[in-house]
Amino acid sequence: MTKRMTCPSVTGDPKHEPQIIGFIEANGRVANIPTPIPLTDAMRAAAGPQPERMFRLAGPCRESRCVQWRDAACSLIGRMQETVDRLQLAPDTLASLPRCAIRGTCRWWAQAGPEACRACAHVIYNPGTTAGSATGGVG
C-alpha cells in the first residue's frame, strides 16, 4: 500500500481538505504546530475568505491533478528554495529540524529532505503585502 503524501501548502478551500499545521506570524514566517488541526467551517468563517493568510494549511497531495506537478514531482519546493536562497531568508544549514506536524507524509520532505525545511518556514500561500516571504500554493 502506498503512503498518502501531504501537500504542505494548500488554500482554505474545503475541497483541499485543509488542516492547520502552522500560524503566520507578524514577520511573515510560519510557526509550526506539533499536531494538525482540521480547518472547520466555523474556523473558516472566523478567519475570513482567505484563512491561508492566517494559517499554514496542508492537505492531500493531488500529484498530477495539481498545477505545481512537473516531471512526477512537486515543482513548488524547488522554486521556493531558490527564492529563499536568493533573498537570504534562511541559514545555509539547520542546526536542528523544526518541529513539523506532517514530516512523515510531507511531499516536500520526501523530495528534498532536510533542505526542504530551510525554505518551508518562509512559504505562505497568497501572502499579500507580507515582505520577505516566498509565495506558494496549489492549483
Feature tags:
139 residues; alpha+beta; 4-stranded antiparallel sheet; two-stranded antiparallel ribbon; 4 helices; 22% helix; globular; Nitrogen fixation protein
Please specify the SSE layout and strand pairing.
Elements: E1 6-7, E2 19-24, E3 30-38, H1 41-47, E4 55-60, E5 69-70, E6 73-74, H2 76-86, H3 107-112, H4 114-120, E7 123-125, E8 134-136
Helix pairs in contact: 2-4
How would you explain this protein's 3D organization?
By secondary structure, the protein is of the alpha+beta class. The protein has one domain. Helix content is 22%, strand content 24%. It has 4 helices and 8 strands, in the order E-E-E-H-E-E-E-H-H-H-E-E. The strands form 3 sheets. It has a 4-stranded antiparallel beta sheet with strand order 1-4-2-3, with no helix packed on it. A two-stranded antiparallel sheet has the order 5-6. The longest helix is centred in the middle third of the chain and has 11 residues. The chain is globular. It comes from Paracraurococcus ruber. This is Nitrogen fixation protein.
